[in-house]
Write the structure tokens for this entry.
Amino acid sequence: MNLKDYRGNEELCDATPRSSDGQLLFLMEMVNKMKPLSKNPSGSRIASVHNGSSLFTGDAGGGESNIRRYLIENDWLEAIVQLPNNLFYNTGITTYIWILSNSKEAHRKGKVQLIDANLLYRKLRKNLGNKNCEFAPEHIQEIVSVYSQMKAIDRRIHPETGEEEGIASKIFNNSDFGYYKVSIERPKRLKARFSEESIACLRFDKYLKEPMEWAYEEFGNEVYTQLDKHAKTILEWAEKQELNLNTKQKKALVSKETWQKQLDLMNAATKLMKLTGTEEYNDFNLFREILEKQIKTGNFKLSASEKNAILSAISKYDETAEKVVKGTVKLTGEKLERLLDHLQCEEGHLADYGYLPSGKKGEYIEYETESDLRDTENVPLNENIYDYFLREVKPHVSEAWINPDATKIGYEISFNKYFYHHKPLRSLEEVSYDILELEKESDGLIREILSLT
């Protein structure tokens, strides 16, 4: 996104609702056309109409979130105005006016104004398509006044009905819309045990499991002796099942080498089962050591990926099992200082970043992570990630740790979050009174249904 190529000298306005990514990309194009301050001290101001998805669509680190981040961190976003529903002819959804400027006034720098004019409208006598309301001149004047004076005001409450009415406006710092998306890891815990059922899956490549299973059930051992005879049928079946195999996968599916490789792997696992036994191990680390010894003494020729395939087939997650060790690392001197500087933490906090003391000086244990238990936390930009972790995560999951290298920054704007006011539920007495009134109108029907007679 290179916005240095400014073009055009006109003030810009767009009022064409688009999809969220299209809207934001078009907004970037408009920003690209703003007059640079070097050519005109007054710069440019942009007004663009969007639907609500531009405010929040897209995950942290994604394109839409990054565009919002780019606009806000460069301090171009002045204000966003929420308009009433059904204001346009061809849509009934809520719409928003984004106002951007590359020459903010001093009191607006580092700030964004959100204006909620959703309840500021007058009804049309006759609907025009989806359009059933409009702004009166005094409504437009009020919005312009609130924007131009950068007012922060609360919505009025009707004295009789208690309903909200009028306009509301709030002022925020740019950083209020940003957040860190922090990955929280937990250790893998595995139990392991050889069984004929667990190693049977090794007959099939994990990426071609479905078509290989079908072919073996359909043709049996002929997939090893007469594969060429059945290749066309196998590929046609995969096509009918819409498996969307690429050229490389199709070639592997009907390759004798693929089938023989998987058969050899299953046979090797069967031999290892006879040597190791079918005892269940609660400590995967111990089981892995035993298996490694059996592989060496039995002179098995297995690659690292084949060993991992066997281990994956005969193990399963169990929260009562021991944690799976990834390895140990020595952290002393400059290496330790570099890590602490990278993590922005003290040595005593390394366990909260995945480095747990082994008991030996300068040695730390790293555990394998369980991807199925991986979680994320959205931490406001103006809050310290580690403080948030200690307060919101650690008390509930004591063995969790932060993965700082996976942290991403996102930006989103939620009008509901900032302008929604909770309305208390009616009292039980009020609800009961209404039910009894309905009972009178229904001539005892409700009482009969509720078996109160």
